[in-house]
Predict the 3D structure of the following.
Amino acid sequence: MVSASYDKTVRIWDLERGVCLHVLQGHGDIVQSVCTSPDGRRAVSASFDKTLRVWDLETGICLRVVQGHSDTVMSVSVSPDGRRAVSASLDKTLRVWDLETGECLRVFNGHREGVFCAGVSPDGRQVVSAGFDKTLRVWDVESGVCLAAHLPNSQVLAFAISPQAERIVFGAADGHIYFLTPINFPPPGPAILTAFDFGLRNADFGMSPEGPAARCPYCATYFEPSAEVVSAIREHSGFPNPTSEMFDDPRLLAACPHCGKPLKFNPFFVHCYD
């Protein structure tokens, strides 16, 4: 087992005996997160010192210091093939790294506040992230495109991706656990989003209190869905469990009125009343 600590160290433990095998030192501040490679030979740590470090777990040697974030690195996740890592930072970005070279391969921009959690899907094709902007986002690793953005009623605290990547399970500050499905949105294609209803608070976003609203995952701009989209969602919302036929309804396809990017709505609303 490998642990990260506020004492600025990473420790490797023998679980059978409860003995610390190595103390990995080098970070200049709190170590917030650590993730091991699938083969168990390496670990990647993320720190308040704005860096990641790649460690050899057999020798305890730091193989590489990875730099690029401009603020605290809150989370790190290693890809299933062990070749890449994805980091989340308070600088509002996620970064994909080549663990052999330390090169930053891609930067994901879209969160409006710091990002505190990142996870790679079991097939390595998508990244899921949670930010202090109260959004949960799904990204395509190769293109860097945000495939979907979900705006829950409450701040996301933690999430997990199911082994077959058919669900995201997340816990929120409202004390509930939520299940989202599906997450394997095949690129290329329209980003999937969920319309929400703040009721009278819709006016805070310059929209009518009578209708739902949405936020584009590409340009992060709020807008009112078209009457056709709203009609389709209201029709499908009468059923407790959405079916694949509902998700395939062509009336749920639209384009962002601000940036023009293609979008696809989920066949249900999220109600966000105070």
Confidence is low (pLDDT under 50) at residues 183-188. The longest strand covers residues 262-271. The helical segments are 227-236, 244-247. The chain has two domains: 50-186, 190-274.
